[in-house]
Write a structure and sequence with these properties.
Blueprint: H1 3-7, E1 8-11, E2 14-16, E3 20-27, E4 39-46, E5 60-63, E6 70-75, E7 80-89, E8 96-106, H2 108-111, E9 114-119, H3 133-142, E10 147-149, H4 157-165, E11 174-176, E12 178-181, E13 190-193, H5 199-205, H6 207-219, H7 229-244, E14 248-251, E15 257-258, E16 260-261, H8 265-274, E17 279-283, H9 288-303, E18 310-312, E19 328-334, H10 339-347, E20 351-355, E21 363-365, H11 368-380, H12 382-400, H13 404-409
Parallel strand pairs: 2-8, 9-10, 10-11, 14-17, 17-18
Antiparallel strand pairs: 1-3, 3-6, 4-5, 4-7, 7-8, 9-19, 12-13, 13-14, 15-16, 19-20, 20-21
Helix pairs in contact: 3-4, 3-12, 5-6, 6-7
Length: 410
């Protein structure tokens, strides 16, 4: 964690653009304290401000500590990050630099939304994962997640199991229903996020009805040469059923390599042209190679003028010393973590996908405006957010394992 975050509390960090706002910088420990009789020079550096002139004068104020804190007002312009540079006076060359503190100003539409980290695609031991649903949920919270859908293969019930495991516990991790949908005679993978019934159960319990309805769709299709018409009709049928269930339909990892690419490219093209899905899993192909192709495909689709809502998902199959877990996820900018808010935020393109392999810097995909904001959050907000989540996740796991004291502590 950077020194400014460890040694000082700066609030608020998120500010409505152009409105005069009171900022407080509070030291965390005597070693970071402000001298009560000293003056401090506060310089405001907007990150998007031109540096063409070396003589550019940034706005600044002089303040004295108040009850051990620095308090000052400023109207932060535009939508951007701002450096608040603090100097202790007097000293040579303008003062002794104490630190560079960051805040972010937002336009009203984004200021009214909060950033939530989530995973739309994860597995447990109820299919081919390693841990039980309750433990998976606890470990996600320990890692800083705000929402999660367990999406086991062919099954919605493990997501129900996770929700029921914590229905009596006051937790802030929002758990959603989910399943990975595997329709008959169609190898395209889809996620039913938040649906109030299982789409897998529909065709598994009544395959004849599935084939009848898909073939009815098929009769009205005029697909390009090389596109598997039945598979497209099956995908359209599944995404329609997911929406009927009130869920978000996600088109998953087409460039996952299963000997060859998981989805024929002609079919990928047609799915993007017709867009029967609600969101594209731009990250979630397990390895760098697949994600390189999925992100490039998404960027090219946007360059062609397409509007493509996206999510990032780990497709994790384990949460302890496991590959994929916490490598890819979504930041959804939403009013809250209710299902309607999260799904509408994704559909309205208020989400970005984050890729963060162990030992590497994170990469962010999505609209430029949101990527810029997400970069600030991953550096300045989530390092403070995640330790709080870790403590709750630790107690969730203890509670799931029968510790009676954990409920009271939660």
């Amino acid at each position: 964690m950077k020194r400014e975050l460890a040694d000082y509390d700066v609030f608020p960090k998120i500010i409505e653009s152009g409105k005069k706002t009171s900022i407080t910088i509070r030291p965390l420990g005597q070693h970071a304290g402000f001298a009560p009789d000293a003056d401090y020079r506060i310089v405001f550096l907007p990150m998007c401000q031109s540096r063409e002139s070396e003589n550019l004068e940034y706005e600044q104020v002089i303040v004295k500590p108040r009850a051990g804190t620095l308090v000052f007002e400023h109207a932060f312009p535009w939508e951007q990050a701002h450096i608040i540079r603090v100097f202790k006076l007097p000293a040579k060359d303008g003062g002794e630099l104490l630190g560079n503190f960051m805040v972010y100003s937002l336009l009203p539409d984004l200021y009214g939304r909060r950033p939530y980290r989530g995973d739309f695609h994860a597995h447990t031991c109820r299919s081919d994962g390693h841990e039980s649903p309750a433990i998976v949920a606890a470990n996600y919270r320990k890692s800083g997640f705000d929402f999660l859908a367990i999406t086991d293969h062919h099954k919605r019930s493990p997501s129900v199991e996770a929700i029921e495991a914590y229905e009596k516990a006051p937790i802030d991790l929002k758990l959603f229903f989910g399943e990975e949908v595997h329709p008959l005679q169609n190898h395209v993978h889809m996620v039913n996020f938040g649906g109030n019934f299982s789409v897998n159960a529909l065709f598994e319990s009544d395959p004849d009805q599935y084939y009848r309805e898909v073939n009815t769709l098929l009769a009205d299709l005029d697909v390009p040469t090389g596109v598997n018409a039945f598979q497209y009709a099956s995908c359209a049928w599944c995404f329609d059923r997911i929406r009927e269930a009130g869920g978000l339909g996600i088109f998953c990892h087409p460039y996952w390599v299963a000997n060859v690419y998981h989805v024929q490219e002609n079919l990928v093209d047609y799915l993007f042209e017709k867009k029967p899905f609600d969101a594209f899993e731009v990250l979630g192909g397990h390895e760098v190679y697949s994600n390189n192709l999925q992100t490039a495909y998404y960027q090219e689709a946007r360059a062609k003028g397409m509007t493509i809502p996206i999510v990032g998902a780990s497709d994790s199959h384990g949460t302890e010393n496991a590959m994929w877990f916490n490598w890819m996820y979504t930041l959804a900018f939403s009013k809250d973590t209710q299902l309607e808010s999260i799904t509408s935020s994704v559909k309205d393109c208020f989400s970005v996908a984050v890729e963060h392999y162990p030992g590497e810097a994170f990469r962010i995909y999505g609209p430029f405006r949101l990527v810029k904001y997400a970069d600030f959050l991953l550096n300045e907000y989530f390092p403070l957010h995640d330790p709080l989540c870790f403590e709750e996740g630790r107690l969730m796991k203890a509670y799931a394992c029968g510790d009676e004291k954990a409920l009271e502590l939660l």
